[in-house]
Amino acid sequence: MVLAFRRCCLVVLICCNICLGLLLNFKLIRNILFHLLFLSALIVLPNLGFWQLDRLEWKTELLENINSRQSAENINFPHNETKKDYEFRNASIEGKFVKNTQTFFFRPNLSGQSGYNVLNAFKTVDDNIIYVDLGWISFKHKENINYIDLDYNNYFTLNGILISSKEKNLFSPDNDYNKNIWYTMSSSEMNEFYNLNGSFFILKIIDQNFFDQTLIEFNPTQIPNNHLQYAGTWFLLFLVIATLYFYQLYQIIRGKWNT
């Protein structure tokens, strides 16, 4: 009986030691996680702030380029060019729209509403193919096949600005060809799908009076440039978290001194 009691006491003692060890380890792990999370935030947040300042510089330069190029004279459409120097320049083309090439690119407008930019192939009088961005429509209008009413028999003179063809990146979804929903405004992808030889540059209509069925959005003043506010937010979060962290360190050190 006494031996059994001693064994029970030994088991209880071992269990208590194990629990105490786990508790101490838990406190140690908790302290490590506490410092790790705060230090990670103190490293990441200012870098996000500086990244937004870099984006601010890039966006400011972009808007200046758009303004200067839009104020320049019209140029002949650069059919065989791929240099970005032509982007945002004014150009005019003359010809007919090509049937059965209306393409819908998923894109939010500048107000944040989701919908589609509508592109259609255009054959010029000198037999070149150019993709024309007609503007933005909402989801509900895409299902109405008569909403975009183009006259494919008439000749048109179109004025707009040049937008460069985009390349698909790792995060771009695959195009849904059955539903005619595209995600990357790529001339090469449209060329492959429609078996055409369209130019690298896309002509974007910027005159709302030309086509009132779509929303025309391309005024540099409408392009958001909020990177300074974003940078301020990241830096403010950094200051708040740094203050909290160093206050906690002060409390910990003060508690140890008092004991």
List the main descriptive attributes of the protein structure presented here.
2 domains, 259 residues, 44% helix, alpha+beta, 5-stranded mixed β-barrel, 4 helices, disordered N terminus, elongated
Tally of helical runs: 4
Class computed from helices, strands and strand pairing: alpha+beta
Helix content: 40-55%
Parts with pLDDT < 50 across at least 5 consecutive residues: 1-24
In round numbers, the mean pLDDT is 82
Q: Strand order across the biggest sheet?
A: 1-3-4-7-5
Distance between the termini: 45 Å
Described by its quaternary structure, the protein is single chain
Strand content: 15-25%
Radius of gyration: 31 Å
Number of strands: 7
Instruction: Tell me the overall shape.
Output: elongated
Number of domains: 2
Strand count, sense and barrel status of the largest sheet are: 5 strands, mixed, barrel
Helix-strand sequence: HEEEEHEEHEH
Give structural notes:
By secondary structure, the protein is α+β, with helices and mostly antiparallel strands. It has two domains: 2-63 and 226-258; 73-222. The chain contains four helices and seven strands; from the N terminus they run αββββαββαβα. Strands 1-3-4-7-5 form a five-stranded mixed beta barrel. Helix 1 runs antiparallel to helix 4 (227-258).
Write the layout of secondary structure elements.
Elements: H1 2-70, E1 90-97, E2 103-108, E3 114-124, E4 129-138, H2 139-142, E5 156-164, E6 181-182, H3 187-194, E7 201-205, H4 227-258
Parallel strand pairs: 2-6, 4-7
Antiparallel strand pairs: 1-3, 1-5, 2-3, 3-4, 5-7
Helix pairs in contact: 1-4
